[in-house]
Amino acid sequence: MKGIANKTLVPVYEKPDCNSSLSDELLYGMPVTVIKSCIPSINKWVYIMTEYQYTGYVKRQDLVLEECNQSYTKWEHAPKKRVTKVYADVLSESRVKGRVVMELTKGAIIAYCGLVMQEQAGWAKVMLADGCYGYMIDEFLEEPRNAWNVSEDRMRQQLVQIAMQYLGTQYRWGGKSPLGIDCSGLTSMAYLINGILIHRDAKMVEGFPVHEIAFEDRKPGDLLYFKGHIAMAIDERRYIHATAKMGSNGVVINSLCPEDSDYREDLAKGILAVGSVF
């Protein structure tokens, strides 16, 4: 059975318990596969797998499920767009005084119904996963990207550009939104927004497009792997990552060169591998 995330952020837990650790986060509109329902007497939790093969438990009420749900079918067949703004509102009317129906974060997915023809241009009609309609500023949305429609150099630039848009975001274990993000959340979202699915973890996994390359061959957009950590190369010297280190908590830029003020010796000397999709 398939499902769609139907909240701004849907927590994915390690166990069917809100007090357990967060293992991942779904952004609005992200698709999942429901593997099984839990606690039949309550039917409160479902065990899911994401499109990047991460698993965990989510509350059933946070999803629109395929089973006996006409709104799911409407959503499934509608054209989609992705949110580019850090935060964007879905409003009840195509004007700024409209009531906020849903709040979306960068990377969220919404069904797109087209531009609204009115005196004040720039509004788009959208559909939520539950079948309700709303309105958004059209320039906050873009067509899903096809990674292989651009040159390698351009794709590398885009990967770094998206990662840089999260600069200053606080660190959140399991997070992958501008409200809070972890190391693999940052790198996987930069790739996902650019149309590439990579493993959402600090390791290379067979079946995903990242393969190991030599350290000296790294280029912008390639991935640096450490023990339990991952970062993205900006150039030969610098990298961007989400760190929980006190004093530089969140998404920051650091250097591999000892002479730079933002050099981190622990990471520079702890690189285990470099990965690339190119």
From TrEMBL:
Segments forming domain NlpC/P60: 153-275
UniProt cross-references to Pfam families, sorted A to Z: NLPC_P60
GO biological-process terms attached to the record: proteolysis
GO terms of molecular function: cysteine-type peptidase activity
Keywords, alphabetical: Hydrolase, Protease, Thiol protease
Keyword Methyltransferase applies: no
Organism, scientific name: Candidatus Galacturonatibacter soehngenii
Family: Belongs to the peptidase C40 family.
Lineage, highest ranks first: Bacteria, Bacillati, Bacillota, Clostridia, Lachnospirales
Protein name per Swiss-Prot or TrEMBL: NlpC/P60 family protein
